[in-house]
Design goal:
About 60% of the residues lie in helices and about 10% in strands. The protein is mainly α and about 40 residues long. The protein has one domain.
Length: about 40
């Protein structure tokens, strides 16, 4: 999981991040969505 100003979707893809958010707050939302999908 990465997010915030110094990151980008391209960089997240290159490093194999499980999720990316434009802002750190959005990254938290993505993380919660990923967790809920894993539990299903």
């Amino acid at each position: 999981m990465v997010g915030g100003g110094p990151t980008s979707q391209d960089w997240a893809d290159k490093i194999g991040a499980d999720g990316y958010g434009v802002t750190a707050k959005e990254a938290v939302s993505v993380a919660l969505k990923l967790i809920s999908q894993k539990r299903a």
